[in-house]
Write a structure and sequence with these properties.
The protein is α/β, with parallel strands linked by helices and 244 residues long. It folds into 2 domains: 153 residues, 3-Layer(aba) Sandwich (Rossmann fold); 76 residues, Putative phosphatase, domain 2 (DNA polymerase, domain 1, Orthogonal Bundle). The chain has a 6-stranded parallel sheet with strand order 3-2-1-4-5-6, with helices on both faces. α7 links the parallel β2 and β3. α1 packs across α5 and α5 runs parallel beside α7.
């Protein structure tokens, strides 16, 4: 049984976006006259919480404030996150991000082999569209047959919901799909959905437990990566009890 589709995470996988997200959060805090500033260390810890709004809620609940003050701050999350999204989008539209090495070639090779492409991400659809347009051009959104995102799924990663959503739209057996991820949360989500999963961590996720990855890489800029994935996937299929 051969591969028919590749499913990609966005943040950290296709582009190392986390520093841009961190800076956008800090700009949003300034907009709302909040004396918060997330350092790289603090933001790295917060990345264990999937989803920007969820990250804000976790941070607010950790503050040494009264219950009433925390509740007031929690109600401000939609406005704060909206400001953060505007700053992040502005950076993307101004060419402030580039793809991780190897991603462009991987997508090109997949298209040459007529593999179907999908995205499964906990970020919003607007962020996905902006990143694709800012790195590949506006036509790139049409390359992906399915785009499943965080605002469509009931639960964020590490729950498998966004992958299950992508699979339901692709209508391909999960055994014929391969997931590409960068983090422990993403890996858990993909494996929980029954997917063969390739992981290449970033600086932000290098400390995650990635031992469950079917292929663990230093980066996606590997010679003949897609051929390697197809070969290893064939071995994975043969090792499955229902196939052996």
């Amino acid at each position: 049984m051969s591969i028919e589709a590749l499913i990609f995470d966005i943040d950290g996988t296709m582009a190392d976006t986390e520093e841009a997200h961190r800076q956008a959060f800090n700009l949003a805090f300034a907009d709302h006259e909040l004396e918060w500033n997330w350092s790289q260390r603090v933001y790295g810890d917060l990345l264990k919480v999937a989803g920007g709004k969820e990250r804000l809620a976790f941070f607010i609940r950790s503050l040494d404030r009264s219950a009433e003050e925390k509740e007031r701050l929690l109600k401000r999350i939609p406005a704060i996150h909206s400001s953060k999204t505007k700053h992040y989008t502005s950076r993307l539209m101004n060419g402030g991000l580039s793809l991780r090495p190897g991603i462009s070639r991987l997508l090109h090779d997949a298209q040459q082999r007529r593999l179907r492409l999908a995205i499964a991400s906990t970020t919003t659809r607007s962020n996905i569209d902006t990143l694709l347009a800012g790195t590949f051009g506006i036509e790139a959104c049409g390359w992906f047959e399915v785009i499943a995102c965080g605002d469509q799924a009931r639960r964020k990663k590490p729950a498998p919901d966004v992958y299950e959503l992508a699979l339901s739209k692709l209508r391909i057996p999960r055994e014929r799909c391969v997931a590409f991820e960068d983090s422990g949360n993403g890996l858990t989500a993909a494996k929980s959905a029954g997917l063969f999963t390739i992981v290449a961590p970033t600086l932000w996720t290098a400390g995650d437990d990635l031992s469950a990855a079917d292929i663990l890489l230093d980066g996606f800029d590997q010679p003949h990566l897609l051929q390697t994935v197809m070969s290893r996937h064939s071995g994975w299929m043969l090792d499955r009890p229902e196939v052996a």
